[in-house]
Amino acid sequence: MGEPAVRLLDDDAVVLRRAGVRFPVELRPIRFDPDDLVTWPDAEGRLEWVDRRLLYMPPCADTQQDVAVDVVHMLRTWSEGQTGFVVGGNEAGMKLGDDIRAADAAVWRRADVGASTGRLRRAPPLLAVEVAGQDEDEGVLREKARWYLQHGVGVVWIVLPEARQVLVATAAGESRCERGTCLPEVPSLPGLAAPVDRVFAQIDLPT
Prior knowledge:
The chain has helices at about 10-20, 60-80, 110-115, 140-150, 195-200, and strands spanning about 5-10, 25, 40-45, 45-50, 55, 85-95, 100-110, 125-130, 155-160, 165-170, 175-180. It has about 210 residues and is of the alpha+beta class.
């Protein structure tokens, strides 16, 4: 395939931040086919295809990655007793409609996705989780949550590490869960009513 059309490194993201650039940034690569992951740019960060635009976010900093791991660990621990579900992480990719998005964590019904194929999943997950980073404010993530819900996702958790809160969004509305409370159980995900504190376990450890 030759050299990638675009290559972004972490230093580039730092320069963009200092220049006051608001993420996500739109890229315009050449020789690009969104359905062929081989043609996606070699970027040190996160990429999504939304409304025929290729959007770039820089790599996750320490707080965001630590919280994302706690979320995935919590979901995977729950799923060990729920063989009808599969948990995705590490920018879990999905193609819903014409768009390609990635969640910090997601849970699918195994019957909806079938066996692994090495390609993007094309069924909406029951749950999608987004963890706020230093380049994402709550408004950006709420907009993404609306996209998820419009494309058939049942529940979205927006995890806000700085506030130690989780915003739960469904088609019926939103609720905000604080430390010391439990996330509301989702009927389609039996038994998943986890304490909010578990989401922030690593970043709350004493240094």
